[in-house]
Amino acid sequence: MNSRTATSKGPLIVQRRVVKAALAAAALVVTAGCSSGGSGGGPPGDGLAPSSSGPVTGSASAGRSTETAAPARGSVKVVRTVTEGLKSPWGLAPLPEGGLLVSSRDEGTITRVDEKTGRTTELGQVPGVAPAGEGGLLGIALSPAYASDHMVYAYFTTASDNRIVRMLYDAKKPPGEQLGAPDTIFKGIPKGMIHNGGRIAFGPDGMLYAGAGETGTRGLAQDKKALGGKILRMTPDGDPAPGNPFVGSVVYSYGHRNVQGLAWDDRQRLWASEFGQDTWDELNQIKPGDNYGWPVVEGRSDDPKYHNPVAQWHTDDASPSGIAYAEGSLWMAGLKGERLWRVPLEGTRAAAAPQSFLKGRYGRLRTVVPAGGNKLWLVTSETDGRGSPGKGDDRILELEVK
C-alpha cells in the first residue's frame, strides 16, 4: 500500500517519597499542563478509597464551571503487578490469543508480555523511529481483521514527521525478528519536541482514529487543512474515512491541543482526553466536525461555536494520557496528577463529579486499557524522563473496579 500524505512496581512495590498534601476541593492549584513528574509506591492488593480532591465538572453544554464534591462510589483494587522493568512504555494492545503488546517510546521496540507469568519477549524494533522529547514510538493498535491478517498498527515520530504504519506480527519467528517490514499507511502529521499526540484506536465502525498534537504551534489547531491539533479518522489503508465531516480529508474534529486518550462507551460514542496549557485539562465527547476551542479557549467558555468539555481538571491534578471505558465509567490515566480518574457517565454528561484513585502510589500513569469485565490494565510512566523511577519501574498493573 502506498504511503499517503494529507493535503487538505512483579510483586515487589517500593515505597517512594511522601505524596503531596491533598488539595482543598475549593482551592485547586493552577500550573502548566505539559507535566513534569512525581512518584509514588504502594503494595499490590490495596483496596483504595478515592481521594478527597476533585476537578471542576459539569455538562458538556454548560457555559460556566461549577465545583462539586465527589460522592463515595466504591473502590479500585490493585490485584497484582503483571510485569515490571519496562522502559518508557506508552501504548498497550491486548492480544485475542492472550498476551499484551507494549510499545517503548524511547527504544522504539514492541514487546509481548505474558499476562499470566509476566515474562517479556521483544518482537522487534520499529525502523525509522526517532525518539526525542515527547516523540518516539507511541500508540499501537491491532487490525480489526487481526484474526486473519495479524497486523499491528503503530504511530511514531520520524526525523521528519509523525506517521502511522502497519506491520505483520509473526510469533513463529525468533524473538527480535517477529515484526515484518512497516507499511506506511499515513504520513505527514507534524512533529515537535512536544505535543505529538500519538494515541491510535480502531472504532466500532472499523475505522482508525488518531490523536494528533499541535506540536506547540498553536495555529495548527484551528486550521482545518492542517493535521496538527486534530482527531483524525481514516480507513485501515489510510484513506479519508467515509462520512468524514470535511470532504476528502482525514480531519474528524479540530481545535485540540494534545489528545492522548481515545475511547468509546457502550453506545459507541467517542471520548477523548486532552492536555491543557496552564489552566484546564479536558475530557471531551467528540462530535464530527466540531471545534474544541484551542488555542482560543482552554476549558469551558460561553462561546457556542466551541464544544465545551464534559469535565475539566486543573493541570496539576491530571495531565491526562490514556482513557478507557468500563463498568459505566470512563477511566483516565494522569501523568503529572499521578492518579487514575473515574468519570461516571449519564448519556453525554458526567453523572457525578469525577473521583480519583491511586494518588501518588505508582507515580505517573500513562495508559489504561479494558481487561474484560470489571478489570483494567494500567501502565505507569516513571521512566519517560519526567518521573522519579524506582526499583521495578515501569510496570503494568491489573486493577479490579467496583
Automatic annotation (TrEMBL):
Segments of skewed composition (Polar residues): 56-68
Recorded superkingdom: Bacteria
Gene3D superfamilies assigned to the protein according to its UniProt record, in alphabetical order: TolB, C-terminal domain
Biased composition (Basic and acidic residues): 391-402
Gly residues bias locations: 35-45
Ranges of compositional bias, category Low complexity: 46-55
Region (Disordered): 34-75, 383-402
Family matches, as SUPFAM superfamilies: Soluble quinoprotein glucose dehydrogenase
Alphabetical keyword list: Signal
Signal peptide: 1-32
Any matching Pfam family: GSDH
Record-annotated Glucose/Sorbosone dehydrogenase domain positions: 86-386
Name the UniProt record assigns to this protein: PQQ-dependent sugar dehydrogenase
